[in-house]
Design brief:
Number of domains: 1
Distance between the termini: 66 Å
CATH superfamily: SGNH hydrolase
Strand content: 5-15%
Mean pLDDT: 90
CATH topology: Rossmann fold
Strand order of the largest sheet: 2-1-3-4-5
CATH architecture: 3-Layer(aba) Sandwich
Helix content: 55-70%
Oligomer: single chain
Order of helices and strands: HEHHEHEHHEHEHH
């Protein structure tokens, strides 16, 4: 029995190491993909800007095309019948402080403002040392004040490990209501990930047991799309026409 448990532990450890190696390749490859995808935005195209961390990069997806940003862009294009150009300013390992320091200045420098903007941030604030609830709340509020009105902002994802789940709940409770107070649309990632429970949570995560996998990212894309639909944006006169959104 002891030998079997030891063998299982070794196998799990090896799987985790291999999973981490895959995730590290994703982080580099997907960042390069989004850098190459950055291009001029035609006048009749929808400009979708993504801010955030490795989730917005798609780390954990089997292909960058199955990331939530790519899936969401595809859905927006299908519904609007317009080309969607994605400018993905997110960075793996980013915290809320990094969004304030690096991503918001890049957003301000864009030649064309976004027609649709999404943000996911907070996961790294929860798991990385040196980030406090007070600093996260401050930086999150700073971000919200500088986003274009009506942006689509995810709340803080939930994690299955007890110490992280409790911390994620505290971080989420501190900032979730700020999203709508600042005139943005809340995307309910926290409740959706928490509602999975420990078993289904792991079915929706990649080989590193942390980032979403293809199934997880499709669920995230659905959550963002539900928020977009609820906002009434697809019903605006300019959504399926040419030129800037109505």
């Amino acid at each position: 029995m002891g030998a079997a448990l030891a063998a299982a532990g070794i196998a799990l450890g090896a799987a985790y190491v291999m999973g981490r190696a895959t995730i590290n390749r994703h982080a580099a490859d997907y960042a390069e993909h989004w850098r190459r995808a950055a291009t001029d935005v035609p006048e009749d195209a929808i400009h979708y800007v993504a801010l955030g961390d490795s989730a917005a990069q798609g780390v954990g997806a089997s292909r960058v095309e199955t990331s939530y940003v790519a899936l969401l862009a595809e859905r927006i294009s299908q519904v609007s019948r317009r080309k969607v150009v994605v400018t993905n300013l997110s960075v793996s390992m980013a915290t809320s402080r990094d969004v304030v320091r690096y991503q918001l200045p890049r957003l301000a420098e864009l030649d064309r403002a976004p027609d649709i903007l999404t943000l996911d941030i907070g996961g790294n604030d929860v798991v990385l040392p040196g980030n406090t609830l007070e600093s996260f709340e401050k930086h999150f509020a700073d971000i919200l004040t500088q986003l274009p009105p009506g942006s689509f902002v995810a709340d803080v994802p939930w994690f299955t490990l007890p110490v992280l789940s409790r911390r994620a709940e505290r971080f989420n409770d501190a900032v979730a209501d700020l999203i709508t107070l600042h005139g943005h649309h809340r995307v309910h990632v926290h409740d959706a990930t928490r509602g999975l429970g420990p078993l289904r949570y792991h079915i929706n995560t990649a080989a590193d047991w942390f980032h979403p996998n293809d199934t997880g990212y499709r669920a995230w894309a659905d959550l963002f799309w539900e928020a977009i639909e609820s906002s009434g944006l697809p019903d605006l006169p300019g959504f399926s026409a040419t030129g800037p959104l109505g």
